[in-house]
Amino acid sequence: MASIRLHNLRKTFGNVVAVHSLSLSIADGEFAALLGPSGCGKTTTMNMIAGLETPTAGDIFFGDKRVNDVPPDRRGVGFVFQNYAIFTHMTVAENIGFGLRVQRRPPDEIRREVHKVAELLDITHLLTTRAGKLSINDMQKVAIGRSMIMKPRIFLLDEPFSNLDASFRFYMRGELKRLQREIGQTMIYVTHDQVEAMSMADKIAVMDFGVLQQFGTPDEIYNTPANLFVANFIGSPSMNFVRCRYCQENGQGYLVQQEGPARLVLDARRRHLLAQRHRADDLVLGIRPEFIHASPTMSAAEPETAWPGRVVFLEPLGARTIVHVRVGADTLQVAAPADYRPALDAPQWLTLDPRFLHVFDAQSGLAIR
Amino acid sequence: MNRSRWWTALIRYVLLVVVTVVAIFPTYWMATMAFKPKTEWTGAGGVIYWYPHNPTLENFRTLLAQNQVGKFFRANTASALPSIRNSLIVATLGTLFAFGVGVLAAYGLSRHDTSAQGHFPFYLPLVRLALLVIILMPFMLLGSRLAIVDKWYGIGGLILIGIMVDDRIGRLMARVYTRGPVGNLPFSILQLRMFPPIAIMIPIMVMWAAFAMVDTLHGLVLIYGVVTFAFVVWLMKSFFDEIPRELDEAAIVDGSSYWGAFFKVVLPLSKGGLAATALFVFILNWSDFLVALLLTNEKWTTIPVFLNRLVSAETGAQYGPKAALGLIALIPVLVFGIAIQRYLVRGLTFGAIKK
Amino acid sequence: MAHLQLNHITKRFGRIEAIKHLSLDIRNGEFFCLLGPPGAGKTTLLRLIAGLERPDEGDIYIDSVRVNDVFPGDRDVAIVFQNLALYPHKTVYENIAFPLRERKIAPAEIEQRVRAAAKLLHIEQLLARKPARLSGGERQRVAIGRALVRRPRAYLMDEPLANLDARLRLEMRVELKHLQKDLGQTFLYVTNDQIEALSMADRMAVLNKGVLQQCDEPDVIYRLPANRFVATIVGSPPMNFLPCTLAVANGTLTVRHEHFVYRPADESGLRAALAGRSAADGRVWLGVRPEDIGVYEAAPTNEAMLAEVVVLEPLGQETIVDLRLGREIIKARVPPTRRLHEHQTVWITFDPAKLHLFDAVTDTRLYTSTREQPLVGGRKTL
Asked: Deepest in the core among A303, A320, C172, C201, taking most CB within 10 A?
């Protein structure tokens, strides 16, 4: 078990900067996710932690010890890859116990440890099965078990679920998180799927083009995104963005849609924030689909905040329906109840929940708060 | 860590240089020897000349001049020119022949499930010619007793018997080696590679003699094509296997015929493979000695055979002219290699296309 | 415009039956999704329609013409493969122009049609590039452009979004659906992602091991799954199943679980549904979707059950709660604002109007307590 600290970590391949000076600390026993689109540097970062790549600059600490020069096999990291490297000619028990057998541990100790791991993974009934006969899903469990038995200080997982069935992925997500809680293992999970990161991790590091965009709990990442990239990347369907400018009238502050009729009254705090800025004419208003309410009639209570639009598209997803509504030149996605089915082109009134508004600077992309 | 990396790099470079020098030295020696006068290449007097002290074209003159009767050449009075021409023609045509059949066969094997039983492809006899001959031998001997071996119906009948026996053996071997009812077609091509050439050459010589194909162009081209055919099939099949099947299928759904998909999509994508295979096969044919030795006499003598004749009781081995001929023999391969170099590099990085 | 019909198709590869007696009817101008796990036979079905495979039994009709013996290129359908199969040695322009060149169309018209397709897909600036220099999303568009430019009668798509990033997939989904509506053509779309199927399809079919499980509108598939397989593959997280037995207590039919007893409101409806079926020794699965489970800190009704929170999976817009109910772990969906913590004991209820019963032996759905609820704003009109 160990905490991990990355200090100004940097990696270049020729002229390409894969990771810009990256600093992170992951506490002992924490489940951290490295999240980002392909090519964002997340796998390079993981490889540096594992020792498979040498950093161009910066330091990696496990606990208090600098491990830059420690070879990968002595770092005490456990690996699970997307392609489960398991030996198909061995039984599940032999596979799981493989690492210990290499270390020449006594057979009854190996048997005991294998059993313990199998129990945690709920695969005791498969122990005598030949690994080649397992389903893809069970193979991944065996792969996890094989790393786990070595009791690594740090567990690294590189998109381990991307080859699994969708329904099994749900199950494994819960399982892995439960497992991590039970053994209290420090884990780093690399993924491009924000749902996986959100659902399992204690902390998420969102990366793009080798630059750390935000590091925080899922709650922080989701509810207070640091910039447009994070706001857009997290959440499914993604956050709606409307280009706006700020204007003041009769002591009230408004966000006015650049290409359309919508306007929104701001609360005192936001008004204050925006009034202070030099350039407040190019802003992006962000709001998540679930914080917009769509109705076929205008709500009488707050006429100022209701936006007029028309339905352009419907996505029924079973548990809910995503309604695409065009307001001026912008199209907003609204998460509506499953049985809300307005006709195409029907007029809609959108009410935005002011508590969950985000305002970004359109140029820098940074959140204004 | 940094320091250790510095001197391991040094050692690596030193080793590389040593290996390179050792590898290149024989070529250097041949090239320089071609320009040395006799006194330098014979090494008489125990002096080693590391480079030609008196460079001369004498060796080339000796080699290329016709009917030269001089102090060097009593035994061999022919010019090397015809053999150079023969080699060029035979190696090129043999390569083209192997390619014409082999590339299509490789594509077929790559794209179609040959494990299905009951197919008898038209080129099977060709594929199996070599193995066939061995199986044919006992029958040949039997046939010579019956005095039918020099009749067309005798030979034809024996070939038919051989094909049938060979087909059975092929299937049986495929079962044994792959432990399953795997199709015997790719495997029977592999069989061709399992026999040392020397084992099949003598029977082939007998057969060629019976067909009056010894020392003829078509006889040589046929045998070179058949021998290198297996290489073409195996190399090209692995290149075709790397091209996603969906590419030809996309072309077919897009309106191409099967031939159109092959020529417009698959073949342009396997340029690298074609180039590498062509070079490999050409070199095999170009430098072959055994086949040419057994199947040529005078008219179609190739470079390696001619090289072998540059020796006589009177003059001993003619190392100077030999080196000159070796240098000449190097040129076509070098030219061919440089011409297709662009594709060779692409052939090596071929896997990149897939993703 | 095409109407695709499959009549009792069977396809074998050696001894393996990839497709078993499958019949489908895909209407003209429809966005039809084929959903199934890997190895279900979806791709084989697509290849059969394209003509890249031949059925061992059964007939394929395109617009009422039997096409079993028609060459792929003459079927006038376009296919987009999972790996896209762009011609790596040709530029984007030549890739898109290829089908037209193969059909010997006049150069001027080729030029005009390629430019029009490129414009529609917003790839005009990429025409001179080779596929290797395109991003995943751009390649996607080129592959669609190559299909589009021919103006085929039907588009066959084999998981075309599977290799894209999650984010890009979301965008392409909406775009593809818009494109289909604009073209008004028949789309047959193969996927193993239930969200793609639910959100894009006008109608969809669920396939497992070469056997058609159910074919209907996405709404119906979600609310009235034909069997446990369909109930599992559609919905995220999938439906929860609890082993129960049917029992008669005091003359009323009840569904008993180790931890609760469920008394259907319309008991007669359940009896009617069960009539004529031999739910073997009364063993059934009770199916409940994650969103139909209520999670409470205090017992809301007498019927509520105690459960333990095992793991919380916050997704931002919602939180998935893994609950331990006796020996089983079930997943419930709660709003993100709910502050639960792990190892907490909570009370849970099932929405009595949305419960399903499945036969424990055959896995087919026996009964659903859904009372048809009127949809707000009328039926889907897309």
From this structure: C201
